[in-house]
């Protein structure tokens, strides 16, 4: 917090913030105190590029899987669409990641080492291997060259795609930001569902009549709604705050509304040209929903880091549980 | 090597903050007042590698801590402050100034005429904890952060590309990115001075020896001794922070003697390096990824077959 002045200081002296018990906690509610209500952990310095990257990277990863499976079932046109979606989406990824760096000209330092303890390092390598495979597969497809090499590239991309879609969740949960870290078991599922939905929705946008594309989009949309709800519910009451209030709460509501309406449109719109337009509209809604979900999760981290009670509460409960089990 | 910061003798002079800025060439921060205490630094960051916290506490709050404080056994009424110390340390809690100490570090009687008796200042110079298991170091994708031969954690600014991952990863909220520079910065425990057998600038400049510096073993011993003294003096809430090698970061290279709970000083009570949970997190991601593949494959197979029919 370089020189930044804390906002929202209520009164001098240490204070006891509102007491909210942790759901399912086995110990009495902690009563967190704080230092002038100042944050304890630092909010990220990341900007919009990061959730945008989560969105495009997720869509790319799932699309590569869709391409390979569609090809295996003989749906060549859907396979080609998915390959192109994957290539287009992943092409946008490196610029997003690089422009978020404080020193973009040094982005290559990311590939100095491979560090298993750093999801960002692991992810950089996944992206570095995935991008050429996905773009290569799409390029060879368009040119019609080397079909066997094209297939190999597609399989490599499909192998790395799921990792690309989900590692970003680990990137967030491996931080001290309470609302992210507490979602360590649930956030990857949200990102996987959201990625599946995006891949299906992007395919519906191009081929609104393809039943397989629609089915993938609808399945992804339903999974997105369920996994998001599960994640919200898994959080302690004094940590979950951001998802119910503030801008992350608003984005969360936008996300579920866009996803629900989009899913319904894609699922139930009739055939015919009016139906195609409705499905395309639904697909746009789902893509917007997937992006809004990422943005909501991203913004929640900022609110969570700013709230000392969210940091202190779970830690106090941990201490109390330890003390209780030592005694018992 | 390690810092031991004994907050009971800190007088809030901020010599450490200034010495650190001077030696390490840390840019100045805009001169602003926070308006809530004499703490106008607000916390650690890229421009503040030492930050003196000023906690203002009213007497009822202090008394309550006495009754519930960490070192008062159940059923006890709290420390009898009249029993503590010899010189100038007799009186009721209202007559004691828990913010000022004599040469031996014992609290002095309050000058009642000055009306200073109804509250106390807790002051503490905060710093990077130089964790044994350092989350900032673990997550850094460039290897800019590393462990030195002194078991401290240092950030090489010629490697850092400003990815910003270390910032939310640090459980103590220490490291931050410099907005106009793009790279992250934090306390180095004066790596350059240590290489030349010198004491870090903050410890060197501290006029009350609140900041002590030495080998980790010596500092741990000093911390233990000082805690005993302070507990014997009956100061409520006295506790060591960060010295435990079993804590969530496997021990710190900077620990503190506090007079109240850590969160009162803006410190997390039970921080963990979240990289310790990485196996669980990767497993959750692998499960999600597998579910995604199975889900897409299943849906495509079912609808593909149906549409072929
Ligand atoms: S994790 Fe934080 S406190 Fe620990 S060494 Fe890194 S910056 Fe310092
Ligand atoms: S900002 Fe610099 S020091 Fe921090 S994790 Fe990124 S590369 Fe490493």
Summarize the structure.
Chain A is mainly alpha-helical.
Provide structural commentary.
The complex is a heterodimer of chains A (328) and B (309). Chain A contains eleven helices and no strands. With 328 residues, chain A is an all-alpha fold. Chain A is globular, with a radius of gyration of 22 Å. Residues 1-31 of chain A have low confidence and may be disordered. Helices cover 28% and strands 17% of the residues of chain B. The radius of gyration of chain B is 24 Å and the shape is elongated. Chains A and B meet through helix 1, helix 3, helix 4, helix 6 and helix 7 of A and strand 2, helix 3, helix 4, strand 8 and helix 8 of B. The structure holds iron/sulfur cluster (2 copies). One iron/sulfur cluster binds at residues 128-131, 134-136, 153, 170, 172, 174-175, 186 of chain B.
Outline the fold blueprint.
The complex is a heterodimer of chains A (328) and B (309).
Chain A: H1 49-72, H2 76-99, H3 119-143, H4 147-173, H5 178-181, H6 187-206, H7 211-234, H8 237-244, H9 246-268, H10 273-306, H11 308-327
Helix pairs in contact in A: 1-2, 1-4, 1-6, 1-10, 2-3, 2-6, 3-4, 4-6, 6-7, 6-10, 7-9, 7-10, 8-9, 8-10, 9-10
Chain B: E1 2-6, H1 15-24, E2 50-58, H2 59-68, E3 96-101, E4 107-109, E5 119-127, H3 135-139, E6 145-147, E7 153-155, H4 166-169, E8 176-177, E9 184-185, H5 191-195, H6 201-205, E10 211-214, H7 216-232, E11 239-241, E12 254-258, H8 278-308
Parallel strand pairs in B: 1-12
Antiparallel strand pairs in B: 1-10, 2-5, 3-4, 6-7, 8-9, 11-12
The structure holds iron/sulfur cluster (2 copies).
One iron/sulfur cluster is lined by residues 139-140, 142, 144-145, 155, 160-166, 184 of chain B.
């Amino acid at each position: 917090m370089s020189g930044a002045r804390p906002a929202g200081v209520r009164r001098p002296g240490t204070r006891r913030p509102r007491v909210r018990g942790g759901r399912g906690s086995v110990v009495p509610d902690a009563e967190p105190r704080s230092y002038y209500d100042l944050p304890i952990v630092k909010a990220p310095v990341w900007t919009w590029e990061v959730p945008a990257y989560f969105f495009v990277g997720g869509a790319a990863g799932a699309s590569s899987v869709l391409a390979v499976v569609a090809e295996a079932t003989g749906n060549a046109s859907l396979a080609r669409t998915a390959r192109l979606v994957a290539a287009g989406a992943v092409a946008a990824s490196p610029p997003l990641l690089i422009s978020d760096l404080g020193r973009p000209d040094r982005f290559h330092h990311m590939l100095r080492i491979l560090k298993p303890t750093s999801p960002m390092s692991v992810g950089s390598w996944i992206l570095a291997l995935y991008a050429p495979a996905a773009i290569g597969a799409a390029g060879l497809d368009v040119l019609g060259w080397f079909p066997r090499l094209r297939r190999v590239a597609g399989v490599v991309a499909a192998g790395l795609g799921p990792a690309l879609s989900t590692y970003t969740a680990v990137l967030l949960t491996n931080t001290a930001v309470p609302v992210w870290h507490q979602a360590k078991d649930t956030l990857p599922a949200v990102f996987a569902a959201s990625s599946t939905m995006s891949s299906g929705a992007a395919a519906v946008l191009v081929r609104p009549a393809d039943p397989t594309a629609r089915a993938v989009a609808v399945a992804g949309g339903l999974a997105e709604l369920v996994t998001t709800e599960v994640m919200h519910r898994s959080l302690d009451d004094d940590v979950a705050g951001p998802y119910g209030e503030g801008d992350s709460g608003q984005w969360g509501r936008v996300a579920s509304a866009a996803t629900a309406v989009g899913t319904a449109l894609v699922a139930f719109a009739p055939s015919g040209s009016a139906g195609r337009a409705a499905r395309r509209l639904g697909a746009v809604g789902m893509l917007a929903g997937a992006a809004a979900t990422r943005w909501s999760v991203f913004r929640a981290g900022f609110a969570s880091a700013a709230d000392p009670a969210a940091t202190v509460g779970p830690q106090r409960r941990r201490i109390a549980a330890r003390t209780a089990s030592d005694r018992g | 090597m390690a810092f031991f910061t004994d907050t009971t003798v800190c007088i809030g002079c901020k010599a450490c903050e200034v010495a650190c800025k001077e030696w390490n060439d840390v840019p100045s921060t805009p001169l602003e007042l926070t308006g809530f205490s004499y703490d106008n630094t607000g916390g650690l960051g890229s421009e503040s590698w030492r930050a003196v916290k000023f906690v203002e506490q009213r007497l009822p709050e202090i008394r309550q801590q006495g009754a519930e404080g960490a070192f008062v056994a159940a059923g006890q009424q709290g420390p009898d402050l009249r029993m503590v110390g010899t010189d100038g340390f007799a009186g009721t809690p209202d007559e004691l100034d828990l913010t000022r100490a004599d040469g031996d570090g014992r609290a002095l009687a309050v000058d009642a005429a000055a009306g200073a008796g109804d509250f106390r200042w807790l002051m503490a110079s905060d710093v990077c904890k130089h964790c044994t298991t350092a989350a900032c170091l673990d997550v850094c994708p460039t290897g800019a952060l590393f462990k030195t031969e002194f078991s401290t954690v240092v950030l090489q600014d010629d490697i850092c590309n400003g990815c910003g991952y270390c910032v939310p990863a640090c459980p103590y909220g220490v490291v931050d990115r410099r907005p106009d520079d793009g790279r992250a910065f934090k306390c180095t425990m004066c790596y350059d001075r240590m290489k030349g057998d010198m004491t870090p600038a903050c410890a060197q400049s501290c006029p009350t020896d609140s900041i002590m510096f030495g080998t980790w073993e010596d500092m741990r011993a000093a911390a233990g001794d000082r805690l005993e003294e302070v507990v014997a003096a009956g100061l409520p809430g006295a506790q060591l922070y960060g010295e435990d090698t079993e804590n969530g970061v496997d021990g710190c290279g900077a620990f503190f003697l506090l007079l109240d709970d850590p969160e009162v000083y803006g410190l997390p009570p039970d921080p963990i390096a979240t990289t310790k949970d990485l196996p669980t997190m990767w497993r959750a991601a692998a499960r999600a990824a597998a579910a995604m593949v199975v889900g897409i494959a299943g849906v495509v197979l079912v609808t593909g077959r149906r549409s072929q029919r």
